[in-house]
Amino acid sequence: MRLRKKWWARPELEQSPVVAINPKENKGRWKEVFGNGNDIYLELGCGRGGFISARAEQEKDKNFIGIDLKDEVLIYALEKVMKQELTNVRLIPMNISWVADIFDKDEISRIFINFCNPWPKLRHNKRRLTHSRFLELYKQFLKPGAEIWFKTDDKGLFEDSQEYFRESGFDVQYLTYDLHKSGFDRNIVTEYEAKFTSLGMNTMFLIAKLKSN
To answer: Within a 10 A sphere around the Cβ of 41, how many other Cβ atoms?
Structure first.
């Protein structure tokens, strides 16, 4: 569905201290931005912010950064963060392809990738956020032993991603083809997940851990 342009969204994002409009300036100093030495978790494609705000509320001893390209959805994430008075969240409006430009070595402890575009056509596979091309970017700023938590409802993407992780030096530590029946008790349901679960679709999930050198 095409989003209607919200011309007022960018000025509102620019005025908020929660939003990093020029995130490259913070490379290597994100702990200074948060004012503490807590682990930093990154959500790629945070959308309207339901997941990141719930996770940040639940884990106050962690810092969270959410990235999304669209101002029209990020503005809703900002509203949630402000309403819940979350001080451990920052939001970034940018293309995820440039993510390695804004974080330094060992800055991120975990990445969340929730229901990213599956890009099913072979010629588009390299656009997948779990593709080896992206995993090599993430490795530039992930701590040794860091985890990627990945959820999808696309079986082809899920099975291909298992290979991407293994090829890129990650160990798949947990894997299920039906998250909601798996007994895994640390899941936070996204807006998309709730909608499609109600239609009978399974959520597939894995945790991949970066091997220590």
So the answer is: 24
